[in-house]
Amino acid sequence: MTAAADERVVRPGLARRLLVRPELGAVVGLVAVFAFFGAQSPVFRSPDGVANWLDPAATLGIMAVAVALLMIGGEFDLSAGVLTGTSGLVVVTLSTRYGFDVWAAMAAGLVVALAVGFANGIVVTRTRLPSFVVTLGTFLMLQGINLGATKAITGTVQVGGLRRAPGYEQASAVLAGTVEIGGTSFRVAILWWVLVTAAATWVLMRTRAGNWIFAVGGDERAARAMGVPAARVKIALFMTTAAAAWLVGTTLALRYTSVQANVGIGQEFIYIVAAVIGGCLLTGGYGSAIGASVGAVIFGMADKGIVFLGWDADWFKFFLGAMLLLATLANRLVRRYAEEVRR
Amino acid sequence: MILQTRGIGKSFGSVVALRDVSMGVAAGEVTCVLGDNGAGKSTLIKILSGVHAHDAGAYLVDGAEVRFSSPREALDRGVATVYQDLAMIPLMSVWRNFFLGSEPRRRLAFDVARARRVAREELRAMGIDIRDVDQPVGTLSGGERQSVAIARAVYFGARVLILDEPTSALGVKQAGVVLRYIARARDRGLGVVLITHNPHHAYPLGDRFLLLNRGTSLGEYGKSDITKEELTGLMAGGAELDELSHELRRP
């Protein structure tokens, strides 16, 4: 409807519509954080600095985007962080101890990750237990498997030596390589992150699956009543998160050529925090993939910016908490506006 | 008659929820179903909408006997039900809700441009004055939401609309708005079954009135056969009301 067609759109329209964009808070935060670190550290705003903080943003961003989709669909996944470790361990173990080609080991890792995601989804949709509890169980079990299996196979808490495995060079170039742009080398992971964000945004905004994701997170009962296959949507979302964990876990394994058995623990909360900063409601039904990516950039900036300023890295945790609190408060305002009823 | 029941009945175990009810609705007409709580109104609409199958009598659509085993089947025959809770997602925009579960596609994608345009056109054709189809449904008033749900059912091919207490949660003004849209749907040639316990809403709109009490029919009346006062009296259970006013009188 054009503005001329209804005079009431004009007055509250623009400000409120801007306010109701899920990404708005994250973009404001992005500008503020960049200004803060950029003003004090010339390195931070140089191309090398940008490449430096975009790298952690990329691996975190891939996860945050997948977790954001899942949260919009009304569920959590606490096992996503540990699953990056599981995927990496599978890839490295199979290709260094069992003679797998790296590509074949990656395929096996993907199958394992998707199976975990499917299991999460099936248990949550069948039992109707809160996904918080179900995936907390998965989290602990995977943590145990990661350590137990690694110790049993290698006698230590890490597996390494991926560099000597067949197919390592090509796989590494695709996932863990770098690209020169104007004399600065950027990690290839940044490209994957952009692709994942673009694909997720397209699915969310421009496909029926996207409509269904918003619907099952907003009101599952109503969505079912309108013929939305809610269980299938949720299982697919858990599997998407698992696939993202595989992508990130494999990327990190190829980059470092070894994997610690305790890798990824604690990361699941950072994914959720990034998604929340990006405008996702903890209650589901609302949020954005781009917002989650912006949230990840904020974390990348803070993570590296604190180092550039020569501060103790522990301050990052404080920053994490403060951002989460601010973002949740801002999101609550949005929800209140969107749900207010005028009778 | 698009839709008709003949001596229809339904029991749940030993409880007879509905017995020997005959009613009908024709295209372009409104049949009001009136009754107090527990009168069997909801059992009747659940049979009509395909949630429950009847176990006595006959249910006819277009003159042919039917037995629906799901709401989907009823919908395929053009019998659509708009429940009180409307099945809408408050945080989603009007157009996303309008097409939820039946999104138009262009190749792989959800044809968003078409969804927006059709939602806007359909709402306008029903005379529904929505400021902006991009606004979340949660920001609409109760009456507006009800109207969007009606427009959605009409667009998706409903020939008979079953409306479950569409005005019960609304204020006087909003109720008027919804009643106007129901009249609009009727004028477009739909048959409407309006369930209500408010004779003031039912009488001006209805062509036919079915009165239910304790699971049985007190009769189906044409508009010329009954006055609003008689209708209200029957609704309130005439004698019971007299007794109540006697009891409530100051000693």
Task: Summarize the helices and strands and which ones pair or pack.
The complex is a heterodimer of chains A (343) and B (251).
Chain A: H1 10-19, H2 24-40, H3 42-45, H4 47-72, H5 80-97, H6 102-127, H7 131-154, E1 158-159, H8 168-175, E2 178-181, E3 184-187, H9 188-206, H10 208-218, H11 220-225, H12 230-256, E4 259-260, H13 267-277, H14 289-308, H15 315-339
Antiparallel strand pairs in A: 1-4, 2-3
Helix pairs in contact in A: 2-14, 4-9, 4-10, 4-12, 4-13, 4-14, 5-6, 5-7, 5-12, 6-7, 6-12, 8-12, 9-10, 10-12, 13-14, 13-15, 14-15
Chain B: E1 3-12, E2 15-25, E3 30-35, H1 41-49, E4 56-61, E5 64-65, H2 71-76, E6 79-82, H3 94-98, E7 105-106, E8 109-110, H4 112-125, H5 142-155, E9 160-164, H6 172-187, E10 191-196, H7 199-205, E11 208-213, E12 216-222, H8 228-235, H9 238-248
Parallel strand pairs in B: 3-10, 3-11, 6-9, 9-10
Antiparallel strand pairs in B: 1-2, 1-4, 4-5, 7-8, 11-12
Structure commentary:
The complex is a heterodimer of chains A (343) and B (251). Chain A is mainly alpha-helical. Chain A has a single domain, classed as Orthogonal Bundle (ABC transporter involved in vitamin B12 uptake, BtuC). Chain A contains 15 helices and four strands. In chain A, the strands form two sheets. Chain A has a two-stranded antiparallel sheet with strand order 1-4. In chain A, a hairpin with a 2-residue loop joins strand 2 (178-181) and strand 3. In chain A, helix 2 (24-40) runs parallel beside helix 14 (289-308). Chain A is globular. Residues 1-11 of chain A have low confidence and may be disordered. Chain B is of the alpha/beta class and 251 residues long. Chain B has one domain: 3-Layer(aba) Sandwich (Rossmann fold), CATH 3.40.50. Chain B has nine helices and twelve strands. Chain B has helices at residues 41-49, 71-76, 94-98, 112-125, 142-155, 172-187, 199-205, 228-235, 238-248; strands at 3-12, 15-25, 30-35, 56-61, 64-65, 79-82, 105-106, 109-110, 160-164, 191-196, 208-213, 216-222. In chain B, the strands form three sheets. In chain B, strands 6-9-10-3-11-12 form a six-stranded mixed β-sheet, with helices on both faces. A four-stranded antiparallel β-sheet of chain B has the order 2-1-4-5, with helices on one face. In chain B, strands 7-8 form a two-stranded antiparallel ribbon. In chain B, helix 6 links the parallel strand 9 (160-164) and strand 10 (191-196). In chain B, helix 5 packs parallel to helix 6. The mean pLDDT of chain B is 87. Classes of the chains: A mainly alpha (343), B alpha/beta (251). The interface between A and B is medium-sized, with 34 and 36 residues. Chain A: One of its GO terms (cellular component) is plasma membrane. Chain A: Part of the binding-protein-dependent transport system for D-xylose. Probably responsible for the translocation of the substrate across the membrane. Chain A: It is found in: Cell membrane. Chain A: GO terms for molecular function: transmembrane transporter activity. Chain A: This is Xylose transport system permease protein XylH. Chain B: Residues 3-239 form the ABC transporter domain.
